[in-house]
Every structure is written in structure tokens, then in C-alpha cells.
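Protocol step 4 of 6: record predicted structures for both targets in the notebook before any analysis. Target 1:
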Amino acid sequence: MLSAEEIQRYSRHLRLAEVGEAGQLILNRAGVLVVGVGGLGAPVTLYLAAAGVGRLGLVDFDVVEHSNLQRQVIFGTGAVGRSKLAVARERITDLNPNVDVITHEVRLDRHSALEIIGQYDVVVDGSDNFATRYLLSDACVLLGKPDVYGSVLRFTGQASVLSRKDGPCYRCLFPLPPNPGETPSCAEAGVLGVLPGIIGSIQATEAIKLILGKDGTLTGRLLVFDALAMRFRELRVGKNPDCPVCGANPSITELVDYDDFCGASGHEESSSSPIPEIEPRDVRARLTSGREILLLDVRDPQERALCHIGGLLIPIDELPTRVHELDPAREIVVYCRTGVRSARVAHFLLRSGFAKVWNLRGGLHAWSDQVDPSIPKY
């Protein structure tokens, strides 16, 4: 039975015939694992806690940064530098002290995923990388748990319910991951701050429907939202009978090394030909000594307007058509925000016949740490 306090707290649920007291008690006894307390995980966690989901498991191992505050609404400015899980626990407890918050401050991998996921009824994927998405989907298939998927980038978001017996898993939608560096992260490409709130709210809705056993979930459907056009569209996605995990004759019956799976999918770079890297402090020393080095900034113009350390701006997408502007005989140090895009450009230049190319290790973030703290980390 619900207490008097709970009747008052959940009164709007109790008035819904589809929920009622019986449904609220089901929610109160349910357990949901939210993987990633970031842009998606923040609204998911808040709404599930407010709805009275009894056990909330949170997986994250990061600390709050200023750049999180634009969209990760569970955190405030005073939380910067603190553990995301510690702050999230405090916020959830303040919102609904009836919720049991279980924190898992780990990076999920094939060794820990099954044990952690097995403790919950539903998994909500708020991760931001392909390795974790494949890991969660595979683990949910093996354990018979639903995987509430969501992703956001720039102005576009996606949501679906995966890994159920009557629907596809993540591998059915995306049999192979993209080559490393092929798809930019939110940190590289940006994301509209409200977009994770929209997609995260959809994920929370689907999780609640799954707990209550309601029809009409996104199983077999991929919902795509374009925030600029303010338009939803729906794609029918079927179960692949030949899927190596959820198909009729699965070949994957245990979790694999997902970093390896997502990092060695035909990418042209290999460990046998590493990209030369240089530390920011070493670049500064060479420039100070008068050595002629071309600094090549491969970020977007709007990023350049925020901060830069000089040099020539050629955005990464324009490089193939502007490579003739560079002198192959010059020493070139390529830089970007954190060193990811610049590594791809350095690799491209080396393959194009440029012999004196280095990637600025850690990008402008490292430059801020080692050389000039006035360079903002964005």
C-alpha cells in the first residue's frame, strides 16, 4: 500500500487509469539502470526519480565540468569539479527520498556489465560512444533486458527500444561501427542544449511504459527528431534474422572486447604507423627559439573565434580541397580542441606525402594546461 505521503506525491499518476495505485506500486518496486549521467542521463534520471521508480542505478565515472552545464540539468555551477554520481545522488534524494540510488562509479566493460545490468529490470542508454552502445545492447540480449536507446548530435536526436525478443538490437540497426574518427562526438560537433532533454524525456517515458507493461513502445521503431525543422519522423526497424547476437543462430554468446570491435573496424590507421605527436610545451619552445613551424588549426570558424594559438585555419572538412595551400617541405603542427580531429588530419597529410607533420597532443586543452591558462577549455 502507498503511504499518505506517497498518495499525495504521486496523485497525478493515481488519477490515470493506465497507472493507478497498482501501477504506482509496480514503479516503486522496479529497478532501472541509467548508463551515463550526462545530457541524456540527467533528464532520464530526474523524471524516473520523480515518477517513483524504486531503485535507480547510475553508471558514470566522470566529474562535472563547466561545459556540462549547458545541457546536463541535474548539475549546478557549484558542482563543477565534483563526482557526477555524488551530485546526482544528492539531487535525486532531494527530489524524491523514497528512491534508492545505487551508484556504480565504473566504466562498464565485458567483465562488469552482466553483473551490474542483471540487478535491474530496464536499462537506459545515455552513453556517448559506440563501444558502450554495443556492449549494453549485447548484454541486454543475453540477459533478456530491454535497452532504451537514445543519441543526440548537433540538432538531431534518436530514440528506440532495443534488445527485446520481438524487436531488433543495436547490431540489427548498425551491424558495424563507423571507422574511428568518422563520426564526430558532441564535444567536436556540438549539440543544442535542449535536445538531450527532449530525447531523454522520451527515453524516460519508454522506460516507464516498459515497467508498467504498456503497449506502444518504440520496439521495432526508430524515432528521429530534427530540432531545427521541429519535425519527428519514424523508421520501421526489423529484427535481423542473421544478427550474430539476437538472430536465429547467434554466434556471439558472450560479451567481447568492444573497444577493439569499435577501434579496429577497417580504419586506415594502424599501430604499425603511429602518428607523430608533440607536446604543447615543446611547440612553444620551438616557436620561441625562432624555428619556423606552421600551426594548422583544423577546427570550425566559430571555434576559432572562441580562442586560438595562431596559424592557418583550414577546417577539417575543407582540407581535401585546400591541401594545395600547404607546403609539403614545411614543418606543420596540426591542432584542434583535444587532438582527435587533428590526429586524423595529420594522418591524412602523412599519407599525402607531407613528411614533417606532428599532431598537437591533447590539443588546445593541453595547451591551456601546459602553456597558456588563458586559453579557455570549451
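Target 2:
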Amino acid sequence: MRRMILVLVFGIAAASPAAAQQSLSFHLGGFSPRSADARVPNDVLVNNLSFLAFNINDFNSVSIGGEYLVGLGDKFEGGLGVGFQTRTVPTVYLDFVNQNGREIEQDLKLRVVPFSATVRFLPLGHHDAVTPYFGAGAGVFAWRYSETGEFLATDSSIFPATFVGSGTATGPVILGGLRAPISNWDLGFEIRYQAAKGDLPADQGFSGRQIDLGGFTYAFTANVRF
């Protein structure tokens, strides 16, 4: 996967800017993580569902980002992009409360910064008309997951703490969309799927050893051509 990313990056960078249409693309939309039954084995969020009160779709988040696009002939274009998404989900223990009757509270936070290298196929080519496209590529996902708040020990005592896992993961990216020209801009809508998983540190005591980073991004796009 890392070799594929390097090939895509160097291939896009090697395209001749003078001979190719170029644009900067900006997106704003929402990210929806994979559902509980589709996530990787030993996923920390799925395991947390057995004793904490939250849902996987609570991690739906706003997604923003930008991408440099360059034409690779009439029917193809390459893209190098970066995005950002973060979500903090408050939760409490399902079956336990503090001795004073107060809930045992935590915040679960997941932040992902995806870097992508993709190739799009434009079946109608680069024309001043409504343009559908679809494509694929590879992503590098910089992630950070934390659990902060109060925790229940094996002796039923309650203690405050923060547990953190972070790293980078690689995985495939698949996308499709539609855009229409307005002056020097192309406005459109795109759906993007990503698949990756991060390994959590064993010494932090998380309920799972992995965090699934996969899901769908639904976004409005605005491309400025130059």
C-alpha cells in the first residue's frame, strides 16, 4: 500500500502543468464511520458498546479538506489531497454509578487527518458541461483516539485518567461524484469511501487493540480552475 501511494504521488507530480488542466478543489461535508457489524475485529468502539452508553453513529463528524487536481490526458486526472475530521462523544457507564448516585462520565474523542493520492476517470472527458467521474487511490490516515474522564477499576473504585493512542495507517480510497461548471469554478457533490485501521498501544488498557478508521464522506465540492 505504501508503494502504491508513492507511485501515485510521483505520477501526479510528474504530469506537465503546462499541458494539463489544473484546479484546486475544496470540500465540506460529513463523515459517517462504518457500522458496528462492519468494523474490524477487536475494535475499541465496538467493545466499548458493551459497557458504555453511546452509538457508533455518534462519531459522525464534519469533514473539510482540499485537493490539487491535474489533468492526465482528456479522460483522467490525478489528485493529491488532505482533509480533517474530529468528533468528541460524551458517554457514561451503562450499569454503574458513583456512590453519590452521579454518573461515571467519559469523553471519547477521535481525530483523523487523511492524506490521499487518487486517479479519477472522466467518461465524458474534460469539457464545459456536467461531468461525472469516479476513481480510486490510496490514503495515509494520521489519527488520534483518546478516552478522558472517570474509570471504574477492578475493585470498583473510580479514578480519573486519560488514555491516548495515535499513529498513521494506510488504506484504499474509492470515490465518485458529479460537477458542473460555473465561470472558472466547478461545483458538485462527491461520495468517498476509505478503509484503514489503527493499532492502539497495549499498555493503555483500552478495551480493544484496534480502531477502525473506515467510513463514507459525503461532501459538496468547489473547484477553481487555473
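Step 5 preliminary note on target 2. DSSP finds two helices and ten strands in the chain. The helical segments are 2-13, 44-48.
Proceed to step 6 after PI sign-off.
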